[in-house]
From TrEMBL:
Organism in which the protein naturally occurs: Falsiroseomonas frigidaquae
Upper taxonomic lineage: Bacteria, Pseudomonadati, Pseudomonadota, Alphaproteobacteria, Acetobacterales
Name assigned to this protein: (Fe-S)-binding protein
Every Cysteine-rich domain range: 8-88, 138-221
Length: 256
């Protein structure tokens, strides 16, 4: 039986580690507010998704084996990213189809791996947060979080409890932003067209802030908005829910 105060391993993700550490600290704060004992394994590395999407199964499997070894001992594994959580929970077992020993371990790890906000709401029963954010926000549903993990209502539920925040839905919040991991590298022209369509929907809402749960999507959309001269601020949803927006500038901007 899972203890009342479960030990949760925070899978930080490569992009958060390298580009936006504040998301990791926000996730840790939220998990502690949800009554969890949070551990950040220092030996963690990539989940292997870039290699997996590129067809390099050998490298993906090697990285996945390291993740299994590092994280299996915890009650839960939580990532502030639908794509990384989806990789572990949906694709790890298949990487070990011919390895009975690791397949069982990968299946056990997959069963207790969750995206951050869905874990807070669906597993820990969180219904509100003690945070304040003055502004109008719109929310982008990342492909992996939405389609693989069913993350849709959970962030909106918690955002509804943020004092001062008004949520305004864009025309098609489920439309892909064009990042797609290695997709934007393989097909840059298509990716650019897709993110251009997305920024039109964002700006049309009149929102001053764009939120999402995957940093890859956020970096892509923030870059495009910046090149277009837009003043829309871009943030990971965890930063707003944790109430740390005064401590860190929006993505792509410098704190004054």
């Amino acid at each position: 039986m899972t203890p009342t105060r479960p030990r949760v391993a925070l899978f930080v993700t490569c992009l958060v580690d390298l580009y936006r550490p504040s998301v990791g600290f926000a996730a840790l704060k939220l998990l502690e507010q949800a009554g969890c004992e949070v551990v950040v394994p220092e030996s963690q590395t990539c989940c292997g998704q870039p290699a997996y999407n590129s067809g390099d199964r050998a490298t993906a499997t090697e990285l996945a084996r390291a993740v299994v070894d590092d994280f299996l001992r915890f009650d839960y594994v939580v990532a502030p990213s639908g794509s990384c959580a989806g990789m572990i929970s949906h694709h790890f077992p298949g990487l070990f189809a011919d390895d009975p020993h690791y397949r069982g371990k990968a299946e056990a790890l997959a069963a207790k791996t969750h995206e951050l906000v869905s874990f807070l709401v669906d597993v820990r029963g969180m219904t509100q947060v003690e945070a304040k954010f003055d502004g109008i926000a719109t929310y982008h549903d990342s492909c992996s979080g939405l389609r693989e993990l069913g993350v849709k209502a959970q962030p909106r539920k918690l955002l509804g409890s943020v004092a001062g925040l008004a949520l305004r839905e864009m025309g098609d919040s489920e439309l892909c932003c064009g990042f797609g991991g290695t997709f934007c590298v393989k097909y840059p022209d298509i990716s650019t067209r897709m993110v251009g369509d997305k920024t039109k929907d964002i700006i049309a809402t009149g929102a001053d802030t764009l939120l999402a749960g995957d940093l890859g999507c956020l970096l892509n959309m923030a870059g495009k908005l910046g090149r277009e001269g837009s003043l829309v601020q871009v943030r990971h949803v965890a930063e707003v829910l944790a109430g740390v927006t005064e401590e860190v500038a929006p993505i792509g901007m410098v704190k004054g």
